[in-house]
Automatic annotation (TrEMBL):
Annotated ranges, domain Aminotransferase class I/classII large: 29-354
Record keyword Isomerase present: no
The name this protein goes by in its record: Histidinol-phosphate aminotransferase
Top-level taxon of origin: Bacteria
Organism: Microbacterium hatanonis
Functional pathway: Amino-acid biosynthesis; L-histidine biosynthesis; L-histidine from 5-phospho-alpha-D-ribose 1-diphosphate: step 7/9
UniProt subunit comment: Homodimer.
């Protein structure tokens, strides 16, 4: 007889939970998890390889626990006068978010966001033993400053997530919503800017709100704009005291010497690494225009993906695309599907496949 999860002395609060499970299928066109589908350029890859090779010679020793060079590189990249004391990093921004929840959520505490949003927030929250509460958005997936403040005042969360722009809807969030949310709570406010580089160039980052707001955190990732998802590097900016709180919960030496070397080298080529962002944004806008012409409704997106509605049977459309070699995402919003903007060729493959299976209802 095989052992089932329920046979084990699992924590009661984990029973019945489902793990994160975006399908990983080897399809020719994979546009399902918002990766940057452009490979790392050869000259940058060469530099990263040299840096990793140098780090390998010292891999008998534990790495710099404070990943000093990498924090300095992130501070430079973000600008706004940040220094390395205000930077933290981890193996993906998911780990960085987990550190925040381990320090500021946990048993007896509450974390909150506005649904629909990134599916990892409740999973990471419950993993620390905290309670998850979700609030609501308007029909166009925006949240007004007044509504944000009202909902947060009512729930009184210890940790509030603001995904800006939002995954899986693509919706922008203006700084006045973030300010209103911050003023409505005494808890931590995390602005997840995983997609900020895909926003219009003049759209301000919440990093500009950090001065004087010691409970505000802005998290970023190298997984999307930087084409670095496989390396697992995420980071955040916040008050130095808040960073000290994260040192209480991280594992010693959590960022390997190889990861630190690779990420620092890649950041040295930020301009090249980000060179594809404008091209991806133009493919995103092409997706929005074309799915509209096919009879679907594209939601406004400041990210590298498009959520579109008017899909009569999302599971059937998802399968029909799959059968044509194109993998996108059914994120469980009725009559909607989400697709990542790929290269021009990948985007064409998706749009042609979608056109071939009939129009929206
Ligand atoms: C993709 C994504 C992340 C990034 O996760 P990593 O662990 O850095 O790969 C974080 N937040 C949101 C909203 C995302 O969509």
């Amino acid at each position: 007889m095989t052992t089932r999860l329920d046979d084990l002395p699992l924590r009661d609060d984990l029973r019945g939970m489902k793990p994160y499970g975006a399908p990983q299928a080897a399809l020719p066109v994979a546009l399902n998890v918002n990766e940057n589908t452009h490979p790392v350029p050869d000259d940058v890859a060469g530099d990263i390889l040299d840096a990793v090779a140098r780090a390998l010679r010292d891999v008998n020793r534990y790495p710099d626990r404070e990943f000093t060079a990498l924090r300095e590189a992130f501070a430079d990249y973000l600008g706004e006068g940040l220094t390395r004391e205000q930077i933290w990093a981890g193996n993906g921004s998911n780990e960085v978010l987990q550190h925040l929840l381990q320090a500021f959520a946990g048993p007896g505490r509450t974390a909150f966001s506005f649904d629909p949003t990134y599916s990892m927030y409740p999973l990471l929250t419950r993993g620390t033993g905290a309670r998850w509460v979700s609030g609501v958005r308007s029909h166009d997936y925006t949240v007004s400053p007044a509504s944000a403040a009202e909902q947060i005042s009512e729930v009184r969360p210890d940790v509030t997530f603001l995904c800006a722009p939002n995954n899986p809807t693509g919706t922008p969030m203006s700084l006045d919503v973030i300010e209103a949310a911050y003023d409505a709570t005494e808890g931590i406010v995390i602005v997840d800017e995983a997609y900020q580089e895909f926003a219009p160039h003049d759209a301000p980052s919440a990093v500009s709100l950090l001065p004087g707001r010691e409970r505000l955190v802005v998290s970023r990732t190298m997984s999307k704009a930087f084409a670095f998802a496989g390396a697992r590097v995420g980071y955040l900016a916040a008050d130095p005291a808040l960073i000290d709180a994260l040192r209480l919960v991280r594992l010693p030496y959590h960022l390997s010497a190889l990861t630190q070397a690779a990420a620092t080298a890649a950041l040295g080529h930020a301009d090249t690494m980000l060179g594809m962002v404008d091209e991806i944004v133009s493919q995103r806008d092409r997706i929005s225009a074309t799915v509209e012409a096919l009879g679907y409704q594209a939601h406004e997106s400041w990210t590298n993906f498009v959520l579109f509605g008017g899909v009569a049977d999302p599971a059937a459309t998802w399968q029909a695309l799959y059968d044509r070699g194109v993998l996108i995402r059914d994120i469980g919003i009725p009559h909607h599907l989400r697709v990542t903007a790929g290269t021009a060729d990948e985007t064409t493959a998706f749009l042609d496949a979608l056109a071939s299976i009939g129009s929206g209802s």
